[in-house]
From TrEMBL, chain A:
Domain 4Fe-4S ferredoxin-type: 196-217, 250-279
Protein name in the entry: 4Fe-4S ferredoxin
MF GO annotations: iron-sulfur cluster binding; metal ion binding
UniProt entry tagged with the keyword Metal-binding: yes
KW Metal-binding (keyword) present: yes
Provenance organism: Halodesulfovibrio spirochaetisodalis
PROSITE patterns xref list: 4FE4S_FER_1, 4FE4S_FER_2
From TrEMBL, chain B:
InterPro entries named among the record's database cross-references: MvhD/FlpD
Chain coiled-coil ranges: none
A molecular function GO annotation: oxidoreductase activity
All residue ranges annotated as the F420-non-reducing hydrogenase iron-sulfur subunit D domain in the record: 16-138
Organism expressing this protein natively: Halodesulfovibrio spirochaetisodalis
Protein name, entry field: Heterodisulfide reductase subunit MvhD
UniProt KW keywords: Iron, Iron-sulfur, Metal-binding, Oxidoreductase
Length: 318, 174
């Protein structure tokens, strides 16, 4: 891949100025990557960029505040979370060096597993953004990208890294497969009672491990999270439907106008609860009402931090 | 399905939580009281300094804890005692209002509006029509609901294990 060689070159040149560069390296098999922290020249060769680079490296930034010079290799969607953090003055733009590239989308392990039985059988998978070529138990298989990709890639309009200092390779011209969120639309066909029942079933499975919160690049409160607060006490230690649901409400409400829909919460969920439905709904409302996409412009102000005296898009409630 | 207890029995009270701002709506409710306007008695009022003080999570918490309805009322836009609290509140409350539908909580159970301290008559109308609306919707569905599909799964697993088979999640997939 040409972009990868260029990326490595750019990182090599920039590394002396930087404390660390965060990217991805090959994981324990062909289908997994894990985060890579480049601190020296030797580490650079471990860098990989492929359709399994699902982790959002900017989630590590909250641990790194305080003047460290950090480089980041970011997909388009990941770069939005960095822009949002800069906008909120939680990061200093001057401390960051962003290495960008054109992304053709990432694949979803749960979908691979559903299709091929067990991802252990899959020896390799490569995607060009339209079709995925796989080797499954020795046999070559192909599948349309849209059937195996992460849900967020279906509606992605930012395949290229935004506001990056270095850009490697060619820009991706990947278009969103659908303007509308099909999964959400389908869900909204259900009646209120069915939706309520659905979430209760899902929330009963939740073990409240807070993986969704910890993976979220926008959850910057760390030890001061409302969910752990004793005074006021928002959540009890009980792991029941009501408390789990309330925790999701807290997460969604705190992400209103901030969520960049990177999908890390849902990916990190060990119970595979489709919590992105809630986030995507909220982000959609913000788009509809305020014509605002979080994390696309560091100079902008989040819609809930400002107001208009006359709100043309909000129906007056009598 | 959702565990709703069905229709209200005659005379049963609803649990409606009202968040009223100190300067306008609480005064408006007081005006209605002083003028002896007849009002439904299902509303429990929580007085807050300003509608801008209301975290949408207050409302979410009330609804998830079994409130049948939540009514929020503040000063009319441009009339906020703190000049701009209700402008921020309007944006937040609108977000919550539109969001609730995806959670399966009927957005009709939540209403926000503006009532000034002199509008005793308007307060009576707001409370009466909101209570009427909630009365039609009936009590909120209980949290113990769901389809119970997970319990079915557990039973299946228990049965499989008791027969000496592996649990379904570890069975070799065909």
């Amino acid at each position: 891949m040409q972009a990868l060689a260029e990326l490595k070159d750019q990182i090599r040149k920039a590394l002396p100025e930087l404390d660390v560069v965060i990217g991805w390296q090959q994981g324990y098999d062909a289908l997994h990557t894990r985060p890579l922290f480049i601190r020296s020249e030797e580490d650079i060769d471990k860098l990989v960029v492929n359709e399994f680079c699902v982790v959002n490296p900017s989630s590590y930034l909250r641990e790194m505040r305080g003047g460290k010079k950090v480089g980041l290799v970011l997909k388009g969607c990941d770069s939005r979370s960095v822009i949002q953090l800069i906008q909120e003055e939680l990061l200093n733009k001057d401390d960051l060096t962003i290495f960008g590239f054109g992304c053709n989308g990432v694949l979803n392990h749960a979908k691979l597993q559903a299709r091929f039985g067990d991802i252990g059988y899959i020896e390799s998978a490569e995607s060009d953004g339209n079709t995925v070529n796989l080797v499954v138990a020795g046999n070559k298989e192909t599948a349309p990208f849209a059937e195996l990709c992460a849900e967020k890639c279906l509606t992605c309009s930012y395949p290229n890294t935004l506001q990056c200092s270095h850009f490697a390779g060619e820009e991706s011209d990947k278009k969103a497969e659908a303007a509308q969120d099909k999964a959400l639309e389908e869900f909204e066909q259900l009646s209120m009672e069915e939706r309520f029942a659905f979430w209760q079933d899902q929330m009963r499975r939740c073990i409240r491990c807070y993986a969704c919160r910890n993976a979220c690049p926008m959850c910057v409160c760390k030890d001061h999270c409302l969910a752990n607060s004793r005074q006021p006490k928002w959540l009890s230690e009980d792991v029941d439907v009501q408390n789990n649901f309330m925790f999701q409400m807290i997460h969604v409400m705190h992400l209103t106008g901030r969520c960049v829909e990177c999908g890390e919460c849902e990916r990190a969920c060990p119970m595979d609860i489709p919590i992105m439905l809630l986030r995507r709904k909220m982000a959609g409302i913000v788009r509809d009402v305020f014509a605002y996409n979080a994390g696309t412009n560091a100079e902008d102000t989040s819609p809930l931090m400002r107001f208009e005296v006359e709100e043309p898009t909000i129906e007056e409630r009598h | 399905m959702s565990g709703s207890t069905g229709l209200l029995t005659e005379g049963q009270d609803l649990r409606i939580v009202g968040f009223l701002c100190n300067w306008c709506s609480y005064g408006g409710a007081d005006t209605a009281g002083v003028a002896r306007f007849e009002q439904p008695t299902d509303l429990r009022v929580i007085r807050v300094p300003c509608s801008g003080r209301i975290d949408p999570l207050f409302i979410a918490r009330a609804l998830l804890s079994g409130a049948d309805g939540v009514l929020v009322s503040g000063c009319h836009p441009r009339d906020c005692h703190y000049a701009e609290g209700n402008f921020y509140a309007r944006r937040r409350l609108e977000m919550l209002k539109q969001f609730l539908s995806v959670t399966g909580i009927d957005p009709e159970r939540f209403h926000y509006t503006w009532v000034s301290a002199s509008e005793g008559q308007r307060w009576q109308d707001v409370v009466t029509s909101f209570t009427e609306r909630i009365r039609k919707l009936g009590p909120a569905p209980k949290m113990s609901g769901g389809t119970g599909y997970d319990e079915e799964c557990l039973k299946e697993i228990a049965a499989a294990v008791s027969l000496g088979e592996q649990c379904p999640c570890h069975k070799e997939k065909a």
